[in-house]
Amino acid sequence: MKELEEGSALQLDFTKLQKIARTEALVVPVVVQDADSKEVLVVAYANQLALEKTLETGIATFWSTSRNELWIKGATSGDMLKIDEVRVNCEQNSLLYLVRMMGGGVCHTKDAAGKTRPTCYYRAIKEGKLVHRDEDHHEGPTIFQDQG
Amino acid sequence: MKELEEGSALQLDFTKLQKIARTEALVVPVVVQDADSKEVLVVAYANQLALEKTLETGIATFWSTSRNELWIKGATSGDMLKIDEVRVNCEQNSLLYLVRMMGGGVCHTKDAAGKTRPTCYYRAIKEGKLVHRDEDHHEGPTIFQDQG
Question: Which candidate, A65, A148, B35, B129, has a CA 20 to 30 Å from the CA of A54?
Answer without folding.
Answer: B35
